[in-house]
Amino acid sequence: RLEEPLYAMFVSAASCISGPDVDDNHDLASRIHLGMNQLSTDNSALLLLMPSETCSLSISTLGDPYQLPNMERKDSMLFHYYVAEMCPQCIVRNGYNKSYRQVILPLVNKSNILLRAILAFTANRVKLQDNRFRTIALRHQGAVLHGLQQSLNNKNRTSFSRLEILSTILMLCFFEIYNPGQTPKDPHGLPIRPWMTHARGVRMLLDLGPLDSHDSHYEKAVVSFLSQYFASRSVLAFTSLSPLEDQIEIFDHAQYWLGMIDRPPEEINPFAGCSNELLKSILVITSRMRQVAQSRSQSLPGLQQTWANMMANHLFAMDQLPPAERRDGDASAKLPSQHACSTPATLLEKTSEAFRLATVVLLGNLYPQLDITAHEQTELCLDRLGEILGSGVAVPQHGALGASSYIWPYFVAGCHLQSPDQKVSLAQRIRQLFSRNLSADTASGQILCVLEEVWSLPVGHRAAACSDGDSFLWESTKLNRHRVLEWV
User: Fold this and answer.
1) Coil, helix or strand for 321?
2) Which residue, of 83, 169, 239, 252, has the fewest CB within 10 Å?
3) Most confidently modeled of 61-65, 219-223, 338-342?
4) What sections of the protein cross the membrane (predicted)?
């Protein structure tokens, strides 16, 4: 039996479910059965079917031949779509030569709550092409949350294993990826980040102690993958905080989850678009900037510049490698490292290089105002970012993973334009990129809105903003509206 604080989190999460055709939570719980041998929903709950005649799920390959028993046709189609199109091959843990799909899919045979979570996640993704799947997604999500709630609350019922719960939370995190424009609010009107609720719950689970050796390999693999997700969300959130009251907890999450990732530091985080080592550098730079902005006793300019120079050299020498994948029984060999001098060709290479350049631009805030070299370095990075944009950066598929995180570098660049020429050329390219990506399921609209406000500020506003304790120019434009910029 798990601790009561964790149970309370699931109660809170379940109470946040909303949407059309979703009945009272307690009534829903009484209709849904989460037994180990069957997956059933009574007929009154089937408000939407998955008719292949009117909606075709495009599956390029049948994938692994997983045919689970007692699945309705609509759920079977969703599950096969997940296996074929949404379940990656990436290696999730050092020294453990199994891919993500080789860890997750076998668990589905033993856990119906994990299966329901997968169906919820998949339906929530498919709803972007057919909104009728929204109800299916919400019903499966409701079943999962209430199943966890009942298991944690019922003393006479066998609890789900920790491995089941961790894997299920992973799917609930994926579910939230496709709801970034639907940030709930607390009673005071401040934004709530669902990923932080999940992160707190996982940390409580891990604090319960080590798992039996039978499940330890699977658990460590799931935790490593979850850690990459939470690290990406927390580090990028730390760069654009609102409200600032969250900064201590988010910084703590960022440090914790970066330390829990069991992958090479130079490997590109699948949720961020840059290496985990670069994510760590972004966190360090942002933290230092906040300390300088919020402290009356700033460090000596000479020491500050020395540190910034060392960090810039580290950033330019940093390798960033594509995630290793397992195919045909073997893990793929390491690809050539991508230094800053390389010419990026693929979208992944362009994005990781854009992250590097944007981080150097961010670092420029720590240089003394009169440093000519730092100014030239920032100009060069902005020009390179403009070239990457001009080379044809593709907009991710509607609702694709990374639909907003991959534009973080261009958000940073847009907040640091220094000359009239840049405001004309680079700002126009950024505006076009964001405008093509505007949709109800991404955060691009809010991000572009903040940028437009930044571009409308008068010259010299940066100094005034920073003198008020803001670490970044964009904070002064969005804090009054309590905006949450989600990078997913």
Assistant:
1) strand
2) 252
3) 219-223
4) none
Among left, alpha and beta (phi > 0; psi -120 to 50; other), residue 419 is beta
- Token readout for 292 is 């300088």
Pairing of strands 40-41, 326-327: unpaired
Residue identified by tokens 């029984």 is 329
Cα separation, 139 vs 142, in Å, equals 5
Residues in contact with 187: Cβ distance below 8 Å, sequence separation at least 6, in sequence order: none
**What's the pLDDT at 227?**
96
Tokens of 165: 């719960």
Domain extent, residue 378, equals 263-326+335-481
Decide if pLDDT at 94 tops 60. Answer: yes
* Chain position carrying tokens 């905080």: 241
Q: Does 48 fall in a domain? A: yes
Tokens representing 347?
């979208």
Do both 134 and 273 map to the same domain?
Answer: no
Contact 455, 479 (CB under 8 A): no
Q: Is 461 exposed, middle or buried (0-12, 13-18, 19+ CB in 10 A)?
A: middle
pLDDT digits (tens, 9 = 90+) for 339-376: 555 677 888 889 899 999 999 999 987 877 667 778 88
The verdict on residue 162 lying in a domain is yes
Beta strands in 156-232 (DSSP E): none
427, 414 contact by CB (below 8 A)? yes
Query: CB burial class (10 A; 0-12, 13-18, 19+) of residue 155?
Result: exposed
**What gap in Å lies between CA 173 and CA 227, rounded to an integer?**
11
- Domain final residue, candidates 143, 161, 185: 185
- Domain assignment present for 233: no
Burial 50-65 (b: 16+ CB within 10 A, else e): beeeeeebeeeeebee
What is the total residue count of the chain? 488
The residue among 152, 185, 218 that closes a domain is 185
The whole-number pLDDT of residue 211 equals 60
Count of domains forming the chain = 2
Which among 192, 194, 190, 191 is positioned nearest to 177, based on CA atoms? 194
Residue 140 is predicted with a pLDDT of 94
Question: What mean pLDDT is reported for the chain?
Answer: 73
Q: Give the pair of three-digit tokens for residue 418.
A: 């220094």
Residue 34: inside a domain, yes or no?
A: yes
